Write the structure tokens for this entry.
Amino acid sequence: MTHAEQQAPDSAIPPRQVEPTEGIGGVLSIRPFRRFWFAVAASALADWLALLALVTAAMWTVDGDYRKHAMAIGAVFALRLLPAAVMASMAGAIVDHLDRRWTLVTCDVLRAMVLVSVPFVDKMWWIWGATAAVGVIGALAGPTRDATVPNLVPRQRLGTASQFNLVTSYGAAPAAALVFVLTALIGTAFSQDVAMFVDHPSQLAFYTAGGVFVVAAIFASMIRMPTRGRSVSTRRPNPFKVLAGGRRVFAHGRTARGLIVGMIALFLAGGALVGTAPLLVVGLNAGNAAYGTIFFMLIAGVSAGMLWGPRVVPAFSRRRLYGMAVMFAGLTLLILAAVANVVVAAVLAAVVGVFAGVAWVTGYTMYGLDFGEDMRAKAFAFAQLIVRMMLFVALVAGPVGAGYGGLRSWTIADRFTFDYSGAALLLAGTGVFVIILGWIALLSVDDRRGVPILRDLAAATRNEDHVTGRPAGATGFFIALEGGEGAGKSTQSDALAAWIRAKGHEVVVTREPGATMIGKKLRAMLLDLDGDPVDPRTEALLYAADRAEHVQSVILPALRRGAIVISDRYIDSSIAYQGAGRGLGAREIGRVSRWATDGLLPDLTILLDLDPAVGHSRFTEAPDRLESEPQDFHLRIRHAFLDLAAHDPDRYLVVDADQEPDAVTTPIRHRLDRELPLSDQEKRQALELAKRMREEDARRKAEQAARDAEKAALIARLRAESEERQRQAEQARLAEEAARQAEDERRFAEDEARRIAAEAD
């Protein structure tokens, strides 16, 4: 830049009044900024393309096994990211003393020269050296680019210009991936004719990146601006101080902790996929084009998720959406690790990106809203530092861990063989870990505890306003009695209250409208025939106001005490009377009522169904404003009540009210016997009953044991007597046998004596 150019800021800096156009078109209409933006876009495109080329070149250049390939990839990511981290605090101070235009030009030209030299050197050490050099140069180019913007646009458009530059820098990633895929496909197509494309498939990408950097340098050289002027600080906060300040962020509350945990999970998932994808595609017998496709699909998915995030099921809780998106990103990553098809892997990478984008834009927005102005800047600095650290860990440790996993096979029953790689194992493990972190984040930020998530999501998908659930500590039971005029709600309310009190519960009997001091005034305005006519919309809002006061003053305090609340009318009455009866729409009235009550619904709604004609015949007093409406009005109300019950049968009990009061009460008692919580009195009675049953059981067992002992003693005695008789019989048999033997011996002796005597004669 010449001295004359430096002395002519008025011609270089557009006046504040130039061009009334607002937004992106407004900043692009400024010629110096437009040239600058072309330079930024080209430089960002080349930078992303260089990263992809360096990673794949390291994989194809290194000699060795799977582990060495993985180590080479991890080293490239480390050398690419470390310079930016190391030089972050000093780069701003350096570029403040340099001519910004020529700094941009020099940085782009140097990076082009370094990248073009890689194919010629064709050594692993230079791939790593080139990676580090590109990282160092990029660390200087970034602050220079940021400090240049204030010198090119009016101050009132500075925010738009800076955001546009940021979007351009990251938006160049998918474009770079497409260019990388194109260079890989060209290399494959000409591999038979050009030998270098066989041994070095990334060479064309290096030449392309170098050429794009030269184009960026040309556009940068065309910018006219002062060397210095209006600028922003390019110095970044000390990372150690930011980490130390993170304790205040975590101490801020469960929501902040949950959001940080979810962000960590997202960047671990994305970093693990980007870092191990080169190894993954090799295991799937694919090459550079497949890696570029997976990278493109992931980044495109993230962009789509960030774009669609605010529009995804707008009626669904943003906090729940955040936690679920993180969990589904992890689940998709787990599924991706199991597939053996590169096309399916690319599609799943896009799905991971969509979930990550939805979670990121949702969580980042909530994160900013969770902090006050005094802490917001420090909180964002901490979040950005943490996610960068997690991204570094995932990109560097991911390939290294995958390398130690190696290539393995698993044979089952000597028939089925499963081949899997360390990259797949690491992605599966990361997916499981991300699911766990997502669940922790969901538990921390959930604002609808007690409401089933799937039911809440289904209702939000149907564009219904679902409930927020029972507030924490509201342990009581809420019963609402609904129905048309003359159905007997007051009678049943009193009967149920007496029956439930007999069980030992505290019972609060209330009604709408008119349960509070404000409610009494509103009731007079709404129901007295002597008052002025009330517009239907005004009537609906007054009922909602009464209900809001009723919930906060009567119902919630009672539920927090553990009481049983019986309300004569609640939300459904407004939906039926104002929504259907007045024709204002059930959906709209339901939304207003749920908002007024903060989503509090009864545990059980008892609908006393009765023909309106029968109900009117039961009137004993002069009818009020609603009771005086014609029959078709009350018929619409009856049908609306029945429709509500049909849509949620688990929460409703429909009872035919055209019976004697006791007959109406019986099925209600049967239902409440199953659903009412036990009172302290019932718990004591249950404990006493259990104690008596245990004592009775012990007595029965003791008596049985005594009977068993007596029986055993009798059996033992009988067995002993039997054995004694057998012994005596055996002794008698032996004695008899001995006597016979003695007799036989005596006779033998006599015979022998006679024989001898005879022989002697």
Notes: The chain has 27 helices and seven strands. The two ends are 173 Å apart (CA to CA).
